[in-house]
Design a protein that fits this description.
Elements (H helix, E strand, L loop, with lengths): L38 E6 L4 E6 L5 H12 L6 E4 L5 E2 L15 E6 L10 E8 H5 L10 E7 L4 E7 L6 E5 L4 E8 L3 E8 L4 H7 L3 E3 L49 E10 L2 E9 L4 E7 L11 E9 L12
Parallel strand pairs: 1-5
Antiparallel strand pairs: 1-2, 3-4, 3-5, 6-7, 6-16, 7-8, 8-9, 9-10, 10-11, 12-13, 13-14, 14-15, 15-16
Length: 324
C-alpha cells in the first residue's frame, strides 16, 4: 500500500500536518467565534407596521432610513418610543447595540417644530433683562417689533432701545429700504437704499427648526440652580470672542426651561442678529429665543435671551407702530 505525498503541498486526505498528531496532550484549538446574530425589531406607526431584520452593527441613521422606506415617515421627522412611552434619543452613528432588549418600537411623526408664519404677522421680541430689571446700556436693543404682509411684500422692523428706536421700512416690490434712524439727542435721520435681496421671503422660508441631537448642549437648563448674585452689565468674556453657550451668571435666573416646551435649533436673522435656538410649545409656538451677536463692546452678552410674542395681524392693522 503506497500512499505518497509530495513535500510543500497540503496534507493528503487521511494524514495530519500537526506535530501533535496522535498525541493526547495536543493543545485544544480555540473555538471560532460564531457570527453575530441578526435581531428582529417590530416597528409600527399609527397607520401601519413592519418587522425588520437588522444586524447588531446597523446604525441608528440606517435604521431611520429603513423605517422611512417601510412606514413612510421621513428620517428627520421620526420620534421613537418604546412600550412605556419612553422616547429613544440615538445619534445617527450609534449602533443597535444601544437598543439591547428592545423588540418593539412605535414611530411617531414629529412634524415641523415651528408653525409657518401667517401671511400677515406681528413678532415682538423682548429682552428678559426687562423682566429681571437688570441694567442695560442705551445702545442695547431691549425690544424688536416686526410686522409684515407677505402678500404685499412689505415689512417694518423697529429695534427699540432705552431712549429711542429706529424704523426700517422694507418695500420688496419696489426694492427699497427706508431707514429712519433716531437718537434721543440728535433727532431722526432718514436714508433710502436699494434692496438687492428679499429679507421677508428669507425670513418666511427659514422659519423652521430642527430637534436637537441627544448629545447637543441645551441652552435652557431643565433643573436650574437657585439664582445667586447680581445681574452683570459688563461681559465676563474679554474681547469679542463669540459664546457657544449662554453665561448663566450674567443674569441669574435666565435661560430656564419651560414646562411642556422643546428646545430646537434655528437659522434665522432679525435686525442683523442671529437666532440659533428657540423654545417652542408642543403646538409649534415660539416662546423664547437665544439671540447671538448682542454684545456691544464690553457690555452685555454675545448670547442674550428674549421672550417671544407672535400673532396673526388683522387686515385692518397697519404695519408701523403707533408709538413714536
Amino acid at each position: 500500500d503506497h500512499h505518497v505525498c509530495e513535500k510543500n503541498v497540503l496534507p493528503c486526505r487521511g494524514m495530519s500536518s500537526s506535530p501533535y498528531a496522535g498525541d493526547a496532550t495536543a493543545p485544544v484549538a480555540p473555538a471560532v467565534a460564531s457570527a453575530e446574530v441578526d435581531t428582529t425589531l417590530e416597528v409600527q406607526s399609527l397607520a401601519t407596521a413592519a418587522t425588520l431584520t437588522l444586524a447588531p452593527q446597523t446604525t441608528a441613521g440606517a435604521l431611520r432610513q429603513r423605517i422611512a422606506e417601510q412606514l413612510g415617515i421621513s428620517a428627520e421627522h421620526q420620534v421613537w418610543q418604546v412600550s412605556d412611552g419612553q422616547r429613544l434619543n440615538l445619534q445617527d452613528s450609534e449602533t443597535l447595540e444601544a437598543l439591547e432588549g428592545v423588540t418593539q418600537m412605535t414611530v411617531l411623526h414629529a412634524g415641523e417644530p415651528l408653525k409657518p408664519l401667517p401671511k400677515r404677522f406681528d413678532i415682538r421680541l423682548t429682552s428678559v433683562r426687562e423682566r429681571f430689571r437688570t441694567g442695560y446700556s442705551s445702545a442695547f436693543t431691549i425690544q424688536y417689533r416686526l410686522r409684515a404682509d407677505a402678500e404685499k411684500g412689505e415689512m417694518v422692523l423697529e429695534p427699540w432701545r432705552k431712549n429711542d428706536h429706529d424704523t426700517l421700512l422694507y418695500n420688496i416690490r419696489e426694492k427699497n429700504l427706508k431707514h429712519l434712524k433716531s437718537h434721543w439727542m440728535a433727532g431722526t435721520q432718514e436714508t433710502n437704499e436699494a434692496l438687492d435681496w428679499d429679507p421677508l421671503a428669507d425670513l418666511v422660508s427659514r422659519w423652521r427648526g430642527r430637534y436637537l441631537e441627544p448629545s447637543a448642549t441645551r441652552f435652557w437648563k431643565a433643573s436650574p440652580d437657585p439664582p445667586e448674585g447680581e445681574p452683570r452689565l459688563f461681559s465676563a468674556v474679554k474681547g469679542m470672542k463669540p459664546q457657544t453657550v449662554p453665561d448663566y451668571a450674567a443674569v441669574p435666573g435666565w435661560f430656564v426651561a419651560l414646562e411642556d416646551c422643546e428646545e430646537i435649533e434655528t437659522d434665522l436673522e432679525i435686525g442683523g442678529k442671529k437666532i440659533q435656538r428657540m423654545m417652542v410649545t408642543q403646538d409649534g409656538k415660539p416662546v423664547r429665543i437665544a439671540m447671538s451677536q448682542c454684545r456691544i463692546g464690553p457690555l452685555h452678552e454675545d448670547i442674550e435671551e428674549y421672550e417671544v410674542e407672535l400673532r396673526e395681524l388683522a387686515a385692518d392693522e397697519k404695519l408701523e407702530s403707533d408709538e413714536f
